[in-house]
Amino acid sequence: xxxxLYPSHCVLCGHKGARGLDLCAPCFDELSWNRHPCPxxxxxxxxxxxxxxxxxxxxxxxxxDEAKSPLTYAYPLDxxxxxxxxxxxxxxxxxxxxxxxxxLVAGGGDRPDFIVPVPLHPSRLxxxxxxxTVELARPVSKRLxxxxxxxxxxxxxxxxxxxxxxxAERKKNLRDAFAVKKSVDGKHVAFLDDVVTTGTTVEVLxxxxxxxxxxxxxxWCAARAAAVS
Length: 229
Hints:
The chain is of the alpha/beta class. The protein has helices at 2-5, 25-30, 55-59, 77-87, 90-107, 122-128, 132-144, 167-173, 200-211; strands at residues 66-68, 71-72, 114-117, 153-155, 178-180, 188-196, 216-224. Strands 1, 2, 3, 6 and 7 form a five-stranded parallel β-sheet that branches. The protein has a two-stranded antiparallel sheet with strand order 4-5. The longest helix has 18 residues, at 90-107. It starts with a helix and ends in a 5-residue tail after the last strand.
């Protein structure tokens, strides 16, 4: 009944949506799907690679245990994420969360005890009006029946926008930026972010969690940029 009264419309072209999503079938097919991800960091890999794990993870494994991302950060997905994140387009955020949820359901594997959206500092939250990772987490939580915990981690220091910094500056920027507020002893935690590029943010968050007793940390994101060595 809701679908009849409020039919879905594609956020890319405006045509009628398909599969109950705000995305039509042709635009669904044209998204930059992450068809050959590294199972450790989710970076997109060429289909003919000899090893299932990327070279960066072989040389320097990340602190987290696994990463999952259905899409790569490329056109037109990059425009959708920017529209959602910086223009407050919440329907697009809901769509991205639904695509991530479908991907996670199809992939199976161990379910975490709870989902932790990457926290924003209160000043950034006030400026933006919403935390995009919380909006992404809502459909994922609903579909997978995993609780979202907003009380586990907090960003205790305001930082520069990561996208403006290089890898070394990103690490320095996030030093002592996060704190764990609730017990995570023996827990499997999934961090949820919109985009993972260098992985600096989730690396720092993972280290913070594991230092506080977390047993396992997964990284879930809507899109993954190509790994940079």
